[in-house]
Amino acid sequence: MVAFPRTLLSLSALLIDIASASRCSPASIEKPDLPGASILDIQAHEAHNYSAVSLGPGTNDGGHYTISFCNVTVTHTHPGWNDRIHTQIWLPLEGWNGRFQGLGGGGYSTGFGATYLTYAVAQGFASASTDGGLTTSDSSSTIPTDLSWALSSKGNVNWPLLNNYATKATNDMAVIGQQITKSYYNTAPKYSYFAGCSGGGRQALMMAQQYPDVFDGILAVAPAINIQTFIPAGYWPSQVMHDTDVYPSPCEVHAFTEAAGKACDRLDGVEDGIISLPARCSIKASDFIGKNYTCNGTQRTFTPSSAKVIDAAWSGSRSISEQYGWYGVNKDADISSYYIPTTCSTNFTCTSTGSDLFGTWIKYLVAQDPTFNLTNMTQPQFFHAMHSTIAAYTSILGTTDPNLTPFKSAGGKLIAWHGLADEVIPPNGTISYYQEVLKGDPHAHDFIRFFEAPGVGHCYGGLGPVPNSAMSQLMDWVENGNAPAVLHATKGYNETARDLCPYPLRQVYVGGDSRNATSFACA
Ligand SMILES: *[C@@H]1O[C@H](CO)[C@@H](O)[C@H](O)[C@H]1NC(C)=O
Ligand SMILES: *[C@@H]1O[C@H](CO)[C@@H](O)[C@H](O)[C@H]1NC(C)=O
Ligand SMILES: *[C@@H]1O[C@H](CO)[C@@H](O)[C@H](O)[C@H]1NC(C)=O
Ligand SMILES: *[C@@H]1O[C@H](CO)[C@@H](O)[C@H](O)[C@H]1NC(C)=O
Ligand SMILES: *[C@@H]1O[C@H](CO)[C@@H](O)[C@H](O)[C@H]1NC(C)=O
Ligand SMILES: *[C@@H]1O[C@H](CO)[C@@H](O)[C@H](O)[C@H]1NC(C)=O
Ligand SMILES: *[C@@H]1O[C@H](CO)[C@@H](O)[C@H](O)[C@H]1NC(C)=O
Ligand SMILES: *[C@@H]1O[C@H](CO)[C@@H](O)[C@H](O)[C@H]1NC(C)=O
Ligand SMILES: *[C@@H]1O[C@H](CO)[C@@H](O)[C@H](O)[C@H]1NC(C)=O
Ligand SMILES: *[C@@H]1O[C@H](CO)[C@@H](O)[C@H](O)[C@H]1NC(C)=O
């Protein structure tokens, strides 16, 4: 072996460093070619040992990851739209797995930046996230509820930004991301994936519906389809609270949820704290009137007026207006966070803390007035608002086109799942969409599969196990033709595991430890 002098060795190491660093510079990144867009700026520099807590959309097994990547930021505009969109593309310096992954956002945002990018890069993906030109924050710790970007001025919807939010920025991100990936590695990605939950799940389905040949595999978790309807409809319990001037305390709300859990848990054949077959749980909040519960050590009694508010969340405004209403959430969902947000003083005088996620939609997109006072809205005005939002926004944001034939023809595969204890988006909306897909194409199962996740909250959370390996199962389907017969779910409360069943099959308890996946079968 030839012994190189140390200085020469470190010099060659330095040269390699310079080579890789110059590959990751604005000058060597090819300018993306995006029809209808004008590229304003490209930033690129290496980031070493960047460290963050991160996870995949719709997982609960994230962690702390340290990654080194080429950090590319592309800024573009759609001439005439007066928008300014930032797309982040993170390219692993080492160990690229040859694949691209686009990542969605949630709430009133189109991307969560580092929150999802870090994990995807740690898995070896060239990954991308877009801010859609919207002024929402980059964090997924809480659902972004700021919708002020949706108005150009009082009374005027910012249609270009709404369009970016709906679809356009997501496709832009994909096109830019794939081109930058190719430019940096000198090879196009072998496979392209998209993953998103909530608003990101809606972006995912939108890509399958409107840009069917961009992604080979799409993971859509708890998709916010029908957003123009379920969001304002989510305000219904608040409407009932204001109408009746009754604000159930958080612990009373929890007590109702617990009582329903006790009544319905066994209806799926096993007592595990999870309502796996919510359709069998026909109990109403009004059934508990007069029964006692304990709140902070004080014994109290369920009242008819509180029951009315709880039933508003469980049955949804659909029970009042079939046409301008929506489904409720299931009875093991934590309705105290979004549907019945109240706070109390020590003497049990309670009040609403405001329904940010649901109420802001009515303010900004229906009343189109940031100072609109929701608290004195009447019930007829509420249903008029429902009518208006459905009329105005279904075509741009609904994301319910059941015809996925072009996606199927392009060879795409899609996995969707929805937690049955979702506390934000009623799972029934996703179920009815999937039923429409199957109605139009009885063989849709060959390329799109939907799974119910019993006991799982919005994206994750709740007692139920979470399908943490959905992305790897999707890759196995796309790349090896192994369709997911079940979706493996893990890390439920008590380390419970389950194999989720492809709809319309459901889990049936066949005996054994309820924490064990093998104790259930699909039927
Ligand atoms: C990154 O971390 C590794 C391992 O701790 C270390 O060897 C390397 O020098 C670090 N690189 C930079 C640029 O800090
Ligand atoms: C990536 O680059 C952008 C633009 O140069 C910068 O704002 C951002 O902080 C960088 N992110 C990381 C994690 O280095
Ligand atoms: C009950 O206790 C919790 C925690 O100490 C407190 O936040 C809450 O306001 C109390 N009262 C009610 C009615 O929930
Ligand atoms: C969790 O496990 C403990 C101990 O086995 C058991 O007592 C409890 O009922 C379990 N909880 C649920 C929700 O299954
Ligand atoms: C319910 O609570 C009320 C008021 O605290 C009390 O008088 C009554 O005895 C309780 N009923 C039961 C069945 O515990
Ligand atoms: C959801 O749909 C099922 C089946 O159609 C129905 O039984 C159930 O009542 C619906 N749930 C809600 C909350 O609307
Ligand atoms: C409860 O407390 C609030 C504020 O602490 C007070 O305004 C209200 O009068 C009290 N209500 C009763 C019934 O004592
Ligand atoms: C909204 O209307 C309610 C009921 O009329 C009133 O009590 C409240 O003060 C109003 N809020 C604002 C911010 O104007
Ligand atoms: C609420 O009350 C204010 C005056 O207090 C009024 O200007 C506004 O129109 C009312 N809003 C609705 C929805 O009726
Ligand atoms: C689950 O079932 C498998 C197969 O029957 C068994 O090997 C395993 O020990 C069980 N695990 C638990 C936690 O019961």
TrEMBL record:
Broad enzyme group: hydrolase
Annotated keywords: Calcium, Disulfide bond, Hydrolase, Metal-binding, Serine esterase, Signal
InterPro entries xrefs: AB_hydrolase_fold (IPR029058), Tannase/feruloyl_esterase (IPR011118)
This protein's record includes keyword GTP-binding: no
Entry annotated with the keyword Phosphoprotein: no
Pfam families: Tannase (PF07519)
EC number: 3.1.1.-
Signal sequence region: 1-21
MF (Gene Ontology): feruloyl esterase activity; metal ion binding
Family: Belongs to the tannase family.
Protein name: Carboxylic ester hydrolase
Species, as recorded: Aspergillus ibericus CBS 121593
